[in-house]
Design goal:
Length: about 200
Amino acid sequence: MKTWHQGVSIIAASLAAIALIIGSSVLPYGQRAVSQIENIHGVSYPVEDDLITVTEALAHFDVYLQEPVIAKKLHLTFDFIPFAEDHLGVGVRENSFWLSYEPQLFYQAGSSDKKTTALHSASLTIPLSDKIQERDRSIDVMFMAAPANHLPLPDPLTDTTYWQIKNLHATVEYDKPSTSAWRDFIRSIIRRERVL
């Protein structure tokens, strides 16, 4: 009888330890590191006085999560100068297609905005449960100097994109899970790119 109770205690303690380890890996709160902002060929945009100058329609960076994307949302805050850009948006990669970002608009020029050098601030939240996550747990984020229907891409030889960004911060927050969120999370794991 004593051995049976000891066995149950050991199993319970083991399950509690596993739950603690898994629980600590999925804690959803806090600031996360971001990579340098680059063009789609992996070349970093120039930085001067903490301002990153973006000169192409697409500007990519990674956010390094410490947890799975399920039941999480990404909160981005940053300052930017739009100059003559009409639309600026940002999105997180959704599937294995290299351009599968549904941009969330954070700036749209008004009819009187010909060119502005004023510093603007942006704060936006993107749900992550249905987004693709790399093996190192990073997510791929893309700034887009184009409206939501961004295809086809501008010709690199005639691309006149020019805007600046600074003080980019990424925070992961809790997002109430739903049945569809779990389904999307499982689907994103299945769709994840595999090394050939």
